[in-house]
Amino acid sequence: MKYIEKAWEEYRRMVLPASVSEVQLTETRKAFYAGASILFSLITIHAGTEDEEKDVAFLNALSAEVDTFGEELDHVVLGVSGIRGGKA
């Protein structure tokens, strides 16, 4: 299964308007895959050590960063705060 491709298609369907230009679609897809690639690299490099406590702390920090970004988007795009019940 192509997990990132499936996530991209879901993101595209939910976020991008049907009238999106080909240039915007291409550039947004590049940014989406670049983000996925960086996240994968971070997890590969920093998680899976022999120190489980350190690994969990790393994954929790990633989760908090993503939650914080989501909260910022909620505020800017939807004009609301705190709907995610953030873990950050």
How would you characterize this protein structure?
The chain has 2 domains: 1-46, no CATH class; 51-88. It is 74% helix and 0% strand. It contains 3 helices and no strands. The protein has helices at 3-15, 22-46, 52-78. The model has no long low-confidence stretch (mean pLDDT 90).
How would you summarize what this structure contains?
The protein has 88 residues and is mainly alpha-helical.
Structural class: mainly alpha
Q: Give the number of domains.
A: 2
Order of helices and strands: HHH
Work out the strand percent.
under 5%
Low-confidence segments: none
Euclidean distance between termini CA atoms: 31 Å
Report the mean per-residue pLDDT as an integer: 90
Major sheet attributes: none
Helix-residue proportion: over 70%
Please state the CA-atom Rg, rounded to the nearest Å. 16 Å
Supply the number of helical segments: 3
Tally the beta strands: 0
Shape descriptor: flat
Tell me the layout of helices and strands.
Layout: H1 3-15, H2 22-46, H3 52-78
Key words describing this protein structure:
single chain, 88 residues, mainly alpha
